[in-house]
Every structure is written in structure tokens, then in C-alpha cells.
């Protein structure tokens, strides 16, 4: 968050009901009650080809998240291979 | 007498239990139906009058404004876009941003409606069941004239029994987050001068980027 490490990813698992990923994070306790419910979790990459991490971007809603709550607004990772594929496809179309 | 009351109570209980699945089904379907109706209504008003609206863009803006007013929660969206800066803004700045954000978004959306060559906007028939009781998403597809299909998903939130759109994901790109990052960037550039940021606000949507998309 804002370039500061505020926690770590505990578990990454496949949610077989929805077939998307569920990530469990442990965050600093002092953040409890300070993360609005409309905050966003995005998968970001450090550097061009670096490691991936989860970036938290705070929302503006009055209700805040407590221990065990879920960040519902997300931004999935930009997959470089897919971007290249889409780029190639759009090039060949022209 | 006592027997009567008990029986009435029992009948009432049975009735309400029977109504439960109905109610659940209804609340599952409502966001989708709401969006479906809203888009159909808007498209009916535009259809065949594209050239007229291209010259009378303000009329189309008014139609789009009315249409979005019913389905979107602009106060919630604007607060979410301001994000961490929302708390320190004055009530005047907050409501001014709601107005500016809404106006500029409607301008952009209206221009998109008359300039982007789309063939069809369809709400998908197979919607994923909602994961949360008070949140839903409605999946749509925008089909361009060249046949390209762009997935669009509305995120809705249940507020006082009313479903309202609070975010839009276009081709995997979270627009709410995109605008929030834009607001954050502007605040940095203007030394956290709220009024300057609000006055200079214009939604930056890169159509190319949206077409390229984010994730899969």
C-alpha cells in the first residue's frame, strides 16, 4: 500500500465453485477499521518482469473491513503473454 | 380463540416460508433484469436516430443522464474514485466532485455511443449466480462492427433494497480503479489541491487500451 509492505499473502487457492483464485492475506492489525469496503486489491508486478504482489488501493466508502472480511473489488493480473498475443492478433487483422 | 390465532400464525409461517425461495430467486434476477431493461430502453431511444443525435448531442446527453440516474450510484462511485483523499475533502469538494465526475462521465459515454462502431450490446443469458447477498455483477458483451467482442461487467451493490451500479469492468480493466489512479495522479501533480484537481477533471479513457484489454 503506497509502496509500503503492510502484510503478506498467506494462501493462494483455487475456488472450485467459481474457478477463480482466492487469496488470503495477513495484514497489519493497525489497518483494521481503516480499509473501506470499496477498496481494491490488484495483482501488480514489481518492475517489468519482476515478482508479482498484491497492491491495495483504498476506497472512499464509510464502512470498513474487519478481520476475515473480503475485498470484493479486484483487478486481475495483466498477463504479458496474453497481451503479446492480443497485440499480434490485432496486428495481423490490419 | 387461542387455536385460531395459532393456526393463523402457522399459516402465516408456511406462507412466508414458501415465499422465501421466491424472494431469493427474485433478488438474484433483479440486477440482471434491471440492467437489461435499462439498456433496452436506452437503445430504443437511440436506434435509428444516430445522425440526429450526432448533431444534437445535448439531447442525447440528457437521455443518457436520465438512464444512468436510475441505475448508478454516483455518490458512491465518486467517493470510491477519490479513495484515500475522500476523508480529507470538505463536504463542498465532495459534492462538487460528484457533479463533475458525473457530468464528464456522461459526456464521454455519450460521445462513445455516437462514435464507437458497435453492432450490439447484449446482456448475457447465463449469468453467474451472485457470490454475496448484497453484491452482484451483470455480464455483458459489446460487439463491434468488425465482429470483435468486448466483455463488460457491471458491479452492483444492494443499498436500502435498491441495486445500484458502483463499478464497471471493461475487457478485464477495472474502470473504478483506473479513475482512482487518475485522481491520485492528479492530486500528486497539483500538490493535493482538491479544487484544482476537481476543476481539471476529465476522464481519461484510452479506447485502445480497453480494446487490448487486461486479463483473461
From TrEMBL, chain B:
It holds the Pfam family MlaC. InterPro entries: MlaC/ttg2D (IPR008869), Tgt2/MlaC_sf (IPR042245). The keyword Ion transport does not apply. Residues 1-24 form the signal peptide. Keywords: Signal. The keyword Signal applies. This is Phospholipid transport system substrate-binding protein. It comes from Halomonas fontilapidosi.
